[in-house]
Amino acid sequence: MKAILDHIGIAVQDLDKALAFYRDALGLHVEAPEEVASQRVRAHFIPVGESNLELLEATAFDSAIAKYVEKRGPGIHHITLRVDDIRAALTQLKGRGVRLVDEEPRTGAEGALVAFIHPSAAHGVLVELKQRSSLPQREQEGFRLQPEETRSTRPDLRPKRFPLGDLRLTSVNDGLFRLDGGAMFGVVPRPLWEKKAPPDERNRILLGMRPLVVEAGWGRMIIDCGAGDKMDARSADIYGLDRRRHLDHALSDAGLSADSFDYVLATHLHFDHFGGATRREADGVVKPRFPRATYFIRRAEWEDATHPHERNRASYLQDDFVPLDKAGVIGFYAADQEIQPGVRVVRTGGHTGQHQIVYLESGGKTAVFTADLIPTTAHVQDPWIMGYDLFPMETLAFKKRFIRDAIDREYLILFEHDPYVAAGYIREEDGKRFVEPVL
């Protein structure tokens, strides 16, 4: 039996104090929590090299973690060893007379199979065996790990709902894709960015496409709509487009469909943001994907997109938006304004000449859909700017002002391209900037 250290489980009594130490004092990245309903516990993973720390927070007073903390206080609860075949490992241990807590594996965090060895057999240490979730099960869920991916890069593609005053927001997804890591981080050297976004063998990093659904008394809107399904096979290969889970799945999971929307709002017209605005019928005709919706597009962005040059032509694909004009479904506007009550657009420039972000404001709270101004959590440092940006100094100037406001005023930031964090708060401690994940 070959086993390697997967993680160390730490039972916590006061999560805020634990985060103040591991995240704030040590500066470690704490991933979004995962509920393990079968064990009535919430797990917060913290990557440390090839292994992880796992903060365990009880979600019920009678859970094993709650009883452990009550009896012994917070501290190390167990160590976890990863094995290739957990059933073979249990058979080997039973054959050697090792006392087990679990003679058959059960489901744990991340869908893995787990089983515990009794502390009396391990000199007072509770040892957990873990076998990562099987690929067939994950394929049924619509996602398969690539060879270079680890637990921390496995996206959660389920819709994520949250209220904001009178607005109801739902982060959905249009699948995964990949872009060149160097292009995504511009002048930042690879030894720095690859720690946050490991590249594949073609130097591409994993990215998500996360449109945002906004519901209110005035109707239902979707902000951006992903890449869609019109891309040819060669381009899909270049961009590593993974359509096994896409916007139709996400909307269905949220109880919605393309017919559910009154409005579509574009941050800009690049294919990975607005390719899903149209669909190609069986006869080859391209039509609006959201048949009842008015599509709100900034007039100057339309002019840039319909008159592309050598630098931006590959990103502005005419079938993504020109058919909308022919169908008469576009609502053009000229300047920063409130599109609907609580939904306000502000031009940033930089990425494109007319790139914009969307402020969601209600009940004294503010969330901001930052599109390609801050595409992922790895881009919260001021100079971490994409090489794709046509006007990078314009990006830098706006970004510096915006992030200062976001920190001081506690804006909830919606990350459109982060593969595993849909939303979070930008924090700063002792001059060090980081994201506190929320969704």
The CATH homology group name of the largest domain: Ribonuclease Z/Hydroxyacylglutathione hydrolase-like
Spans of at least 5 consecutive residues whose pLDDT stays below 50 are 134-153
Q: Name the beta content range.
A: 25-35%
Mean pLDDT: 90
Overall structural class, as computed from helix and strand content, comes to alpha+beta
Helix content range of the residues, please? 10-25%
Please state how the strands of the largest beta sheet are arranged side by side.
Answer: 2-3-4-1-5-8-7-6
Number of strands: 26
Overall shape: it is: elongated
Reported CATH architecture of the largest domain? 4-Layer Sandwich
Computed over alpha carbons, the radius of gyration is 23 Å
Q: How many independent structural domains?
A: 2
Number of helices: 12
Major sheet characteristics = 8 strands, mixed
Distance between the termini: 37 Å
- What is the name of the CATH topology of the largest domain? Metallo-beta-lactamase, Chain A
The top level CATH class name of the largest domain: Alpha Beta
Description:
Helix content is 21%, strand content 31%. It has 439 residues and is of the alpha+beta class. It has 2 domains: 3-133, Roll (2,3-Dihydroxybiphenyl 1,2-Dioxygenase, domain 1); 143-437, Metallo-beta-lactamase, Chain A (4-Layer Sandwich), CATH 3.60.15.10. The chain has an 8-stranded mixed β-sheet. A 7-stranded mixed β-sheet has the order 9-10-13-14-15-18-19. Mean pLDDT is 90; it is low at 134-153.
Key traits:
elongated, 2,3-Dihydroxybiphenyl 1,2-Dioxygenase, domain 1, 439 residues, single chain, seven-stranded mixed sheet
